[in-house]
Amino acid sequence: MPVRGPVPVNLATRQAAEVLKVGPMTIHVYEDGSRTGDRVSAILLELPAGVSGPPMHWHRFHDELFFVVKGTCRFVTPDAEVDATAGDLMTVPPGAIHTFKNASETEACEVYMTATPGHYFDYFRMLSKAGTEGKMLSKEEIEHLMALFGTFPPDNESEPVDLALRLTKIDDMLSQTPGHAKAMKTPLKLRHQLR
């Protein structure tokens, strides 16, 4: 039987969470995968009243779980719109076309979200960085950024083939983020260390 050393547990508090602004949404990054071997990451999405999330999309590489903490979150798929209220959980497996929005015009909505693998949340960091720098991304730029993380509009049936090229572009974009360490450059591990 292999010998293993002690493995620490980690408490992530809202006060210590990294805070990102993506448009009108506020995102609290509790776990970016750096303490889980990139197996899972977790954020809290704050959606003001009437705010929609991203455009319809699907993910090639990762599962998402959305646990509604406050308010009502409407999940939209090609087949239906489903309202989830506080205490409800929505599971989104790879390949499922979806989006979400705050279903209320008067109340804020909070949704705890996990993704596997954990590297996906670097996508939010990149969107936040663009917004902080005052850049308005075009539809094509947003779709390119989504594709870097294996996320595509509904009409795309597959991902780009050149994984090494995608990783190089991610590394280049992340290396320009002030205060963040250089991203690891290995196609075997998609996690990019940003701290």
UniProtKB/TrEMBL annotation:
Entry-linked Gene3D superfamilies: Jelly Rolls (2.60.120.10)
Record InterPro entries: Cupin_2, QDO-like, RmlC-like_jellyroll, RmlC_Cupin_sf
Organism superkingdom: Eukaryota
Pfam family, one: Cupin_2
Domain Cupin type-2 per the UniProt entry, residue ranges: 44-112
Protein name: RmlC-like cupin domain-containing protein
The species this protein was found in: Neurospora intermedia
